[in-house]
Known about the structure:
This protein is of the alpha/beta class. The protein has helices spanning 26-38, 49-58, 75-85, 100-108, 121-145, 156-168, 185-194, 213-221, 238-241, 257-269, 295-301, 306-312, 329-344, 353-361, 367-381, 406-409, 413-435, 440-447, 451-460; strands at residues 18-22, 42-46, 63-66, 91-96, 113-117, 147-148, 151-152, 175-178, 203-207, 222-223, 235-236, 246-250, 271-272, 281-282, 286-291, 315-318, 350-351, 386-387.
Amino acid sequence: MIPRDVKSSCYPEPVKKRILIVDDEPSIRKVLQAHLTRDGYEVETACDGGEGIETLQQQHVHAVVTDMQMPGIGGLELLEWCCTNQPGLPVIVITAYGTVNSAVEAIKLGAHDYVTKPFDRDELKLIIAKAVATEEACSQNLSAANGRFDIIGKVSGMQRVYSLIEKVADSPTTVLITGESGTGKELVARALHDQSSRATGPFITVNCGAIPESLFESELFGHDKGAFTGAVAGKPGRFELADGGTLFLDEVGELPLDLQVKLLRVLQERTFERVGGIRPITVDVRLVAATNRDLRSQASDGAFRQDLYYRLAVVPIELPPLRDRADDIPLLVKHFLTRFNERLGRKVGGLTPEAMRVLESHSWPGNIRELENLMERSVLLCDQDFIGVDDIPGLDADGSGSPEEPELEGMPLKAYVRVHTAKLERARIAKALEAEGSNVTRAARRLGISRKSLQTKMKEYGLRDGG
Ligand SMILES: Nc1ncnc2c1ncn2[C@@H]1O[C@H](COP(=O)(O)OP(=O)(O)OP(=O)(O)O)[C@@H](O)[C@H]1O
Ligand SMILES: [Mg+2]
């Protein structure tokens, strides 16, 4: 909450910032609109949360002032939507004199502040000015705070990654990036290159898992003319191509042991020969390696050379799995939503809070790549304004994905699908009921079905309402 004695002059002059007022009562909208217009704001109004969300999707608003109780989508749901889809947008809730408790509740849920009815003009002015200033600071810092070097993520594990990138990018030190598949290892390798003084030099990738063993040596070190049958001309290897830049050894854990020896020699001596060549070649290459294996334990088991491991892991950078970064999911969702809306020419507004919760509790075995693919698919296929739980099939609310239950394995496909659909349906209904405090009418509205068919389904699934 803000100190009420702060002078409004502390805040930048509000030059045509846009405020959205959401209230079902026309007189309140009118009073607020008059006050705020006089204070120099551009004002939009909406008569309920749904209309408010529509406005927010269409234009950039700098702060929202909303009533709590409204027919249809209420203030809390609007607040929840804003927190999910427009983090950083301050929401101020309107509270009647004597009902401050509900405002406190709203602030706990992420509201910026509250205003009491009847409105005190100076207080209102101050709260709005503060909110707008916060939004401004937030949108300026948003990109910096929410990620760096084209990498999205604000959790402390990612901040550690950014600070390491910053520290080591410009040194010649070899970096080993570790992390599960899809956690962004290649992005980090790129960032290391882009942030270094080698940025204008080449960035050459070798996928150690994809090159057949017989070609590996010539791929890395090149070959001279006549080195082997078919070598009609000489060819530089990746080490030579990377001269003056960065060589990225991706999936380095896949490197066969005999090639590990050869790589180690280059790292130690900084020179090599092409296959079939005798001339030693010296290059100025910065080496970055990545692996999704636990190279340290492979090294102690003898599956990876220990000496090479220590040479590579001079500076280890470990990327956290997405399941440990639930706080970053809304940011990543927003990032991919913008990207795929643009690429696919769609205008999907966001995720329903329920769908966001499902994403936040999923375990993401494929990490950010899995989320990226899911977002692409759902932006493409979603035929509503919002991606709902139904648009993200295969993920269930308790985050276990779609586990193969052994007892279902032998089942005919039709029965299998029926059982799974029923499970999903039951879970969704139970969630809606829970979210609506067991109010069947509202739960039915939330689910987009009639009250009657909800009651039938509740019976079928043995779900009780609160009454
Ligand atoms: N923090 C992030 N912000 C935005 N996009 C990300 C982030 N991390 C990963 N991605 C995207 O997710 C996808 C997978 O990332 P990347 O290829 O870097 O993962 P990886 O760790 O190299 O995976 P693998 O081990 O399977 O090779 C890419 O499209 C990448 O752009
Ligand atoms: Mg990769």
